[in-house]
Design a protein that fits this description.
- The structure is a homodimer of 286-residue chains.
- With 286 residues, the first copy, chain A, is mainly alpha-helical.
- The first copy, chain A, has helices spanning 6-19, 38-56, 61-72, 82-93, 102-110, 114-126, 153-159, 163-172, 178-184, 188-199, 204-216, 222-228, 230-242, 248-261, 266-281.
- In chain A, α1 (6-19) packs across α15 (266-281), α8 (163-172) crosses α9 (178-184) and α10 (188-199) packs across α15 (266-281).
- Chain A is globular and about 55 Å long.
- Chain A binds chain B through residues 1-4, 8, 11-12, 15-16, 19, 29-30, 32, 37-40, 42-43, 46-47, 49, 71, 74-77, 203-205, 285-286, and chain B through 1-4, 8, 11-12, 15-16, 19, 29-30, 32, 37-40, 42-43, 46-47, 49, 71, 74-77, 203-205, 285-286.
């Protein structure tokens, strides 16, 4: 695909991400989880598109995220691409005549308001997202719990947090959320992985799978930290790193182990989806 | 997905169709062909959406088909879903407050004009589609060759063929094109397969694969007839029929044989995509 609009590239990034295989611990072209299947990801990507289009047309980040998450959720698998959309919406919003850059996407996320934060909280009404305990801000104040969804909006508004403020607090938390770290560090990992994908060769879905394994070996996945603790996340990272030059059978065996254990490096997959979008926006063709 | 718009359902139908496996002879979740890969179908579905949206918003069938085919073709695999779009565009166009019916879609295709026929010919400029020799009409006149694309438009206009006229001629030809037969017979097979999918159980992609095998055993695939002759197509139908109660391993072995032999029952896949759309439009959820 060349010359497509940003929303098309973003939707395709979601589809290419889930189609890459083997992608240890995640749903991929060859693996379903018990209640979360490949087809839920297909429907999630298709459903997210109106929100992605809204971002492309200049809608504020919070409402665009809410709309994309609502659309994504119109399938029975639950949360498929929430984290990926939190990365894609600002990237799409930062795409204009030219492809997004670390600077342009940083400008976009820094410009978010309290009303974007409120819409973000409302998105948690729509779908169950696995998150940890609420972090505390630099003054030791407890940030309203996103798991309360819209019920927490008045508290968010009283505290005057913008969506960027919230991401900054989450990024600074021990075991900091990978998506929040992207927001506050110029989408560094996303751009780094995009360049890897561009320099790689062969089918894009294979490149996505290799990029996923590489990133998983670089840093503990924050979704695994939340669900299974730091030690487990570190062990997964170590094994991923040891498999960098392994053949596909060994990687597949790792993939089967993680699926069996219910260990899902979902945050790493979110960053790969963002990286695929950047690469497509910069001209990568399928 | 529930309550989505027709264009979303149509795009999702394309994605669910290609994700079904095993789907003997076609690209599926587990199989790529040499130069035609799963990722090309993902990009084709994403790219087709603006054309599907145009149809949903009332654009005439020919221009909507042309737009969908143009978008579908923005990937390097070539023709991925041309035939499926020829079925989906009228079905989407016939979807309003209620889901499409054999009657409503027949009204839509019968209302096509010479200008729709011209746009259809122009779509052949965009992508290489495997078609047979041009048929002759009932007076023995030779129908302009679609393989000439836009160069044939003046001849089409002189002859005054509507798009429906052209489909009627193709449907009546020996080994008649399955897509053309759907147009002229109230999308009979598409509705029949939709009902099978609705009555089936389990993941929708599995239902799609079973529906594909069933339909392949019902009638020779017209794309196989064009590419390999009637005898080969009949043999494939016979084997598909014999596998109706077989286990997945036997069906997979059939799938591998067809891929190896380069035998691609693409027209059967097109009808399954149309059937998936009808089922989604009638309320099937993923």
């Amino acid at each position: 695909m060349t010359g497509g609009k940003p929303a098309q590239h973003a939707e395709l990034a979601l589809l290419l991400e889930v189609a890459g295989t083997p992608k240890p611990g995640n749903v991929d072209r060859e693996r379903d989880l018990a209640d979360l299947r490949f087809e839920h990801f297909l429907a999630g990507a298709v459903g997210a598109r109106p929100g992605l289009e809204a971002a492309s047309e200049g809608e504020a980040l919070g409402p665009a995220i809410l709309r994309a998450v609502e659309g994504m959720s119109e399938q029975s698998g639950g949360n498929t691409q929430f984290g990926a959309l939190l990365l894609l919406i600002p990237l799409v919003s930062a795409t204009g005549e030219t492809s997004p850059t670390p600077e342009s996407v940083t400008d976009v996320v820094r410009a978010t308001t309290v009303s974007d934060a409120a819409a973000f909280y409302r998105a948690f009404d729509v779908v169950d997202v696995r998150v940890g305990e609420p972090p505390t801000d630099e003054d030791g104040g407890e940030v309203p719990d996103v798991r309360q969804g819209s019920a927490a909006v008045p508290a968010v508004e009283r505290a005057g947090y913008t969506l960027y403020d919230l991401m900054e607090i989450s990024a600074d938390t021990a075991g900091g959320d990978m998506v929040a770290r992207e927001w506050t560090a110029g989408f560094e990992r996303s751009f780094e992985v995009a360049t890897r994908i561009e320099k790689d060769e062969g089918p894009v879905t294979d490149r996505a799978a290799r990029a996923f394994l590489w990133l998983l070996g670089e840093q503990p996945d924050s979704l695994i930290v939340t669900a299974h603790g730091r030690e487990r996340a570190a062990a997964v990272t170590e094994r991923a790193r040891s498999l960098r030059n392994a053949d596909e059978a060994e990687v597949s065996s790792f993939a089967d182990d993680l699926v069996e254990a219910g260990v899902n490096p979902g945050a790493t997959a979110d960053v790969v989806a963002a990286a695929l979008y950047i690469a497509l926006a910069r001209g990568l063709s399928v």
